[in-house]
Amino acid sequence: MTTNPNDTRAYFFKIDTTIKKIRQILQKKLDAAGLDITVDQWVLLDHVFRFQETGISQNELAEMTVKDAPTVTRIIDLLVKKGLALRTMAENDRRRFIIHLTDMGIEKYQEAYPIVVEVRRKGWGNLSEEDYKVFVRILDSIYVNINT
Length: 148
What we know:
The protein has 148 residues and is mostly helical. It has helices at residues 10-32, 39-50, 58-65, 69-81, 103-124, 129-147, and strands spanning 56-57, 85-89, 97-101. The model has no long low-confidence stretch (mean pLDDT 92).
């Protein structure tokens, strides 16, 4: 794998392969724990958990997770079918659905969270807080650049 900054493919390839490897390891650990959720289901559980008090709309979930609306709908359908989430109509807009976790969904979140933290810590290794700040700054810059 090249580290030459003049190779315009290098950063994307490195980001992509790293994300795929992290997802692969996380999925193996979720499976080994018998949690019966995918990484994509975890991502939605995590976001819904953060908005448990107020709920979150499917559109907001799609925007926050950078997933298209049909994908988010499919994942929510699976979470509802598993009894982990509830989908209710918004009071002020009958075309909009609000998502909450069920008690079982909160329990699943709490079981999965330590596994996610373990994978994140392992991946971060002995990198410093300053490394993290630089890393986030660079990723944010790439994100802004690609969206302009």
